[in-house]
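Here we describe the complex-level prediction in full. Unlike the single-chain runs in Section 2.1, the two entities below were treated as one system.
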Amino acid sequence: MAKLKDLAQMEDRLVAGHGMCLGCGIPLIMKIVLRATEDPLIVANATGCLEVCTTIFPRTSWNISWVHSAFENAASTIAGVESMYQALKKKGRIPQDKKVKFLGIGGDGGTYDIGLQALSGAMERGHDIVYLCYDNNAYANTGGQRSSATPVGASATTSPSGTQSPGKLQRRKDLTKVMAAHGIPYAAQASPGRWKDLYNKAKKAFEVEGPAFLNVLCLCPTEWKYDEAKGLQLAQDAVDTCVWPLYEVENGKYKINYKPRKKKPITEWLKPQGRFRHLFKEENASVIQRIQKEIDEEWEELNRLAGFSQQK
Amino acid sequence: MKKETWKELTLGTINLNAGNSVQNLTGTWRSGKKPQFIEDKCIQCFFCWLYCPHHAIEVQGEEVKGIKYDYCTGCGMCSEVCPPKEKAIVMVKEEIKLAERSSK
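The structure predicted for the assembly as a whole is:
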């Protein structure tokens, strides 16, 4: 079992001096994920907060090979790099025993919306890659527009709350299940609030042969509008209210990694965040009920899938 | 920093200086508060190291030794996640003279 003390001894693959916000959740995720493999790592990055903040020319925060091409094709880029590696290995220009790992990274905009087609293609072709999505529920890099990962009731700049609307009306896309439906060997959902779980999942994702997908909830004080120091509590509340259940799908089998002893009411998750503040007005009480009902349904469905997988 | 022209830039603007962002001192963003490390209260859990977004926790060998103020932006995550009852990292007020900041 990994200890934080040992992880801290490892070399930083993403170094200091990047321009991410105060209390940003991305570096926390990267600190764990980039340490989950000891093999050399090549990263392809979709346009997004991570890409913009870490590579302000002429400087870069990456200590490893890193490539960015466009918003929509991080998955195809890393798939191409992986194919090249296989080809060079076949030709004998890379030694047979040299192991290299490939990681594609995108935010929820570059994964749920813009990069979905490229990601789906790469997963279907069965490249030996890992794709990591850091999901902060909005296009935070461009000013907080809604994405298909934005939850019901959240106020975003293109789905603002006001007298005519209680924020976003549509349900969020369940991308982890979409990816699991590709029949890939490993798909999982994790949260930085439970770092051991995140570490184990990242390790597993790097170890499996074939494509693996990780969906990680990412704290975003800028768009969620909470006190940036209180991030860890929020990441844990997301798991305890079942807004962001921790589960993995290994070869089609669902497994829930963490069941809260007592499921917290959804208001615990909504209350600290400014983007949900309008929901606590009298006229929006029905929206909170709707969110709670949908979360309960999703959690029940997930339990059903996991129970079904156990019986098999 | 001297700006490079197209004659000096690498083809495809490839950056060959891995990790050179350490020259960006994000600590200059700090406004009003800064964390203070109290060594004898520290239980060496490394939570602050994990949850610091700006890599500002100084680790020497196997011990947390302090805070790198060159990078600390004063967000307060480290103090919040510090587990002992009497916290080993507390946020204190910091007065910054504007002239001092801009000269950094």
